[in-house]
Each structure stands twice: as C-alpha cells, then as structure tokens.
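User: My notes are a mess, but here's the protein and magnesium ion's SMILES. Can you give me a structure?
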Amino acid sequence: MNYQALARKWRPHAFNDMVGQEPILRMLANALLQQRIHHAYLFTGTRGVGKTTLARILAKCLNCETGITPTPCDACHACRAVDAGQFLDLYEVDAASRTRVEDTRELLDNVLYPPTQGRYKIYLIDEVHMLSNHSFNALLKTLEEPPEHVKFLLATTDPKRLPITILSRCLQFHLKHITPEQISNRLQHICQAESLTYEAPALEKLAKAADGSMRDALSLLDQAIAYGHGSVNKNDVQTMLGSMAQDDLLPLIEALAAKDGRIIFAQISHLAEHAPDFQQVLEEFINLFHRIAIAQIVPETASEDAAITALLTRFTPEEVQLYYQIALLGRRDLALSPSPQQGFEMIMLRMLAFKLKTEWQETPAETIATPKIITTKPVEPTKIDKSDKNEWRDILPKLELSGMAYALASNCVLDKIEGHKVILSLSILHQPMLNPKLKERLTESLSRVLNQPVQLEINITSEVLATPSKQQQQENAHQLDAAKQTILKDPKIQQLLEMYDATVDVEMLK
Ligand SMILES: Nc1ncnc2c1ncn2[C@@H]1O[C@H](COP(=O)(O)OP(=O)(O)O)[C@@H](O)[C@H]1O
Ligand SMILES: [Mg+2]
Ligand SMILES: [Zn+2]
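Assistant: No problem, the inputs look usable. Here's the predicted complex:
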C-alpha cells in the first residue's frame, strides 16, 4: 500500500499545464512549430521548478506520432510510453548516481544506431554537473557531432560546474523560481481537485515556505495534510512549519554551542536543501533562545521540552542574551541581503565572531556563570505492558519528543512489542510525515525508554486508528462542547442574545 506523493501525481504532462516559465514555453513551442530544433538543450534552475518535467514533455513533443508538435496527442503509443516512463528511445539518467566515465560510455554506446520506436533518440541527463571530467569529455565527443536522430536534454541546478565546452554546445534555458502567488494558486487547484478542505491563508504560508520550488510546496502540502488529519488549516500549518524549523535548527544550535564554524556552515547548506524559509528559521531561532533564557531562570518551564532542557547548560545566560540580540537585529538584515541564505550565514558568523568578555579573561570553564539548575533524575527503565494498546498514550510523554517527531509518534498506535522489536501502525493519511530522520529519533527515544536497543517497524494501514492524537482531538471537542453549553446557558448571555437578536459564534471558542 502506498500513498502517491502529490508532486508525482501532479506532474504536468503538457506545456499548458505547467505553472510559470512562460517565455521558455513560448520559445520551445515556436521552435517546435517551425521544426527548428537544436540538438542539445540545457535546462537550469533550482530544484522543483520544472526542469525534468519540461524535458519529459519535450521528449513527447519530439516523438508524438502525429508529428513534431508543441501539443502532443497523449494518445499515441509514443506519448503514452513517455508518460509511463517506458519509452525505449528515451534514455533518462541521473548523473548524480552515474558519474563514472564507464557509465557515460555505456549510455552513449548505441548512439549511432537509429531509434527503435520513435523519431528521435532522446538522452535526458539530469543533474549533469555531477559527471566526472572524463565523463564530460566522453559526452563532448557526441555533443560535437551528434547524429541527426539524437537530441540531448540536460538539466542541472548548478550550471557553473559545467565545463565551458559543454555549455557552448547547448541552448540554455533558465527556469525561474515560481512566485508564491503562482504556487498558492496551484495548491488551491490541487486541493479542490482532491476534495480537500483547506484555508486559503494556510496555502499561502506553504507557498511562501516553499521558496519558489513547486516540488517543495507539494511535499509540504503532503505533510500538512497528514499533520492536519486530512485538512489544511492555517494554525496547523503554522505549527508544523515552526516544528520543522525547530527540528532543523537543533543541530545548528548544537554546533553554535560547540563554536564549530565548519559544522555551522555545513548545517546551513543542509538546511538550504530542504527547508529554505530562512526568515522562518530565524524566527524559530529567536523563539528558542527566548525559551532557553526563561528556562535558565525558571527551569520548570522547560521540563516538557527535551530539546530545550538539553540546551540549557550549553550556553551561558550572557551568550543567550547576545545571540538573541544578534538574531533579533538580523531580522532586519535578512530582508536586505542578496539571498536569505547569505543573510542567515552572516548572522551566524556574527554570533561566532563575538567572544564574550568572560571568556577573554581565561576563566576556568566551570566558573563561567553556568546556570546551576538542572537536576535530572536518573530515568527509571519503563516497564511496558504489552497487552494494552492504549498504553501508547502513557508511553508517549516519556519519549520526550518534540516537533515533528512528536507529531508523528502521536499519530501512531502501538501494535506490539516483541523482544527488541517495536511495531507501530500509522494511518496511510499520515504516511507523508514518516521520514528516516524522524523514525531514527523515535527509535532512539524508544531505546532509551525501554532501556534496550530497539528495532522499530512502522506499518502503514488504511484502518482508522485510535491514536493519542485522535483521542486528544476528541477530548478537545468534548471540552469545547461543554464550554459552549456553559456559555449558552449563562443567563447574562441569554439576555444579550434576546436583546440583540444575536447568536453565539461558537467557532470563536476554538
Ligand atoms: N513549473 C511547474 N508547474 C507545475 N508543477 C511543477 C512545476 N515545476 C515542478 N512542478 C512539480 O514538482 C515536481 C518536480 O518537478 P521537476 O520537474 O522534477 O523539478 P526539477 O527537475 O526542476 O527539480 C513535478 O512532478 C511537479 O509536481
Ligand atoms: Mg529534476
Ligand atoms: Zn502522441
């Protein structure tokens, strides 16, 4: 059983289904109409803006049995085979996994033979910048004198890493970031087509967080649907993005505590790969340091949050103040810097650069105002009754998870514990939340609580599960109901209702 990711399900199959990139689409359509077709195209642009999609559509345009056309029929054998990923004359490779010259030679082995099914043999080389130098040379030989029946479609996020010799033989098209408006319109269209309940502002938030990438937007939407139990509302999305930012931030803050510039930069570029709203990351940074500052004075405020507790002793109160201030001031700079990532890097550099006076005075480490607050009790290994599935609700708080890991765990039910093996069930609706990173965190926490190395298995099911999250929702609904009744029965309210012929907006009580 599998949930089909929205990004895959909603890959455009025609030029006019693509969002944005109009000038490129127009140029390509004209070239196709006039049959002026170059032998090598290079599509550049950041991830998730349509490079691969465009190349696959172009492969159809070139091979449609109705003739070379910007509007392939989608019905002929060639069109259907391309869409199904089974067209024999489309050689699609991910250069990142086939960098060696042997791979490239093998790929181009049959380049001289005519196509078996279609009009053209199409070589779609994705992430082409990853090829080795020898591979580039092997490719170059064919690019210099390609047979009539061969077309190259290259795609890369990083054209600067391509040799000039390759660049100069390709017709290059740069795909732009997709605007937040275009993204949120597309998300809206998809939500409607999928009959999902959504709030428009929630989609706008997701669109903004996707930072120009349609693929990121769709995978965020997948996760938001899972997070919000099938509907997408603004509050959930805000909490989810906040949790994701916090999850991503923790390793960075850990590196800041260790004052390790190299790891800090590695973490930032790792961040940039998948959660690129640096404004949001900075906000979350400020929130975290605010909570650390408070917890250093009033430790109980952090008792619920393992992440904060772990960070308390890693910073002196002075450092916390300083970093908080730098982050706060950095908010302004971030908007002004050429790219959000650059701005964020400068903010982190500033934090690294400032050395506190207390440290200059060569004070022995222990005497640097370390908050003497945490007295963690040794954790008793938990005994877990295997017989009762509801126990999961009691185990959950002991796992001391936060952010998305908590959200994931609270949407599981415990099936059984068999020796070292813990088996959970997760509804197919929440499958998009499941990723290796979160599973690893859950495994670690379970191992700690069960006091043994745990092997975690999470089964996906289409059953409706009585998860802790569901139970919590039901309890909240009951409480809301009770609150409503109390309010409606209040004599003063009754009086007001009669006087003004009004009703109570119970939605406001949420
Ligand atoms: N311009 C676009 N219009 C509509 N959907 C898009 C667009 N670009 C990307 N997508 C969505 O993102 C997914 C990944 O796009 P892809 O073409 O593989 O991106 P790239 O190759 O640029 O990284 C597609 O399956 C589609 O759902
Ligand atoms: Mg791609
Ligand atoms: Zn066709």
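Strands lie at 40-44, 90-94, 121-126, 150-156, 171-174, 197-198, 231-232, 412-418, 421-427, 455-461.
User: Great, I'll file this with my notes.
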